[in-house]
Design brief:
It contains 3 helices and 3 strands. By secondary structure, it is of the alpha+beta class. It has a domain of about 45 residues. The protein has a 3-stranded antiparallel β-sheet, with helices on one face. A hairpin with a 4-residue loop joins strand 1 and strand 2. The longest helix is centred in the C-terminal third of the chain and has 14 residues.
Length: about 90
Amino acid sequence: MPDEEGAEGVWRPRLARSVMMRYDRVRGAELLLMPERAVRLSDEGGRILRLCDGRRTVADIVAELGAAFPDAPLQDDVPEFLARIRAEGWLR
């Protein structure tokens, strides 16, 4: 899948073409919108996926979040979360 990894073989996650992320003011939450489906994200999940722009690597995302949340176990949690979202087909 050429969209998933750059020339150096490093994954730079971004939302799949059929997925949009929107903030729902009524629910006060980030939503992933897909054809015939919507998924409400936790605050943490929304924060992570907002950084998945196709430019940042997973390591970049972990580093950026680490600056704001230095005591959080990001090295394990972020890649695991992204792998689950990728397995659903919501990230490429």
